[in-house]
Amino acid sequence: MTSDPLDLLALDDELSRSERDTRDRVRALVDEHVRPHVGRWYADGVFPLDLVPRLAEAGLLGMHLQGHGCAGRSAVEYGLAMAELEAGDSGIRTFVSVQGSLAMSAIAKHGSPEQQDRWLPRMAAGDAVGCFALTEPTAGSDPAAMRTTATRVGDEWVLSGRKRWIGLASIADVAVVWARTSDEGADDGRGGAGRVRGFLVPTSTPGFTATPIEPKLSLRASVQCDVVLDDVRLPADAILPHHPGLAGPFACLDEARYGIAWGASGAARDCLDAALRHAGDRVQFGRPLAAFQLTQAKLVDMALEVARAQLLALRLGRLKDAGRLEAHMISAGKLANVRSAIEVARSARTVLGGDGITLEHSPMRHAANLESVRTYEGTDEVHTLILGRHLTGHQAFR
Fold it and tell me: Which residues form the Acyl-CoA dehydrogenase/oxidase N-terminal domain (predicted)?
């Protein structure tokens, strides 16, 4: 019998020593530097910028990337780290995802050697923050409908448009902006006009404005912004030279979605832990809540969902490390694990009773955060249709 009730199926046995060490190291970081403060951060609606150097020192920024000061860890180690960060708070895991899986991955996958040398070492060290500007006010689940344009004028690109729900934009040093190239002006020689291309935009560039979206009821210990690009002028070499088209941002989104599948399992585990501890300590009608049948039924249902989410995340990680992970598999993980985590959070809150609505306990905070997580990087509906397309061969998006 496993001695850890949170490890229902003894999944520790499936992890290598290096993987367990990574998990335990990130868990200790969260216990020391996140848990004591996250309730206040959430209540005040602030992201703790002083946490960034600690995340960098732990090798968590771009930790799955190779070279340029990145840790180069395995997909499973990266996933385990995301689970521990989200057990602390979705907002903290979101920072690491946006920085590493979106902004840094875009530069690593699609950038020139000069762009990589300029930005990746600084971002891995936490000396520069990046954001990933894809979503628009009228183009959320349908990025092909984006209206932001990039026009070649002489030796410059001129970007105009609006983006919405852009994580970290107001604290970022560089934005990876996706825009549709205009028919005006010369082409860059690597793709036709009208294609979606990525651009590196230093946020100090005139015409770039990022405004935090407030008030929010979710992801309060995080930053999401409206971005305006008002004739932002960039040098010709600001364009990411590789992979024109939507395949560029989608490759980065898959990296983030993979991390979310792990992160959601961590949030669910933290909710189960909170419910178990409370049920063991809280005495009603002369005995602890944990001794009542209805409470045990809730705890069992939660434990099964947590174990299933952990198994699914680990399977995705092993496939990714083997080079066999496909997009529909990532959709399955993101859809199933976030859906399960929300139900676990809600059930855990009921075990906590009235105390469960306070920030002293994590489940209601997790439940609110997970409503954002289920929406970004592909809604439930989008991932359902991705899986439907895989099963039937029919495209049902349009």
Answer: 18-127
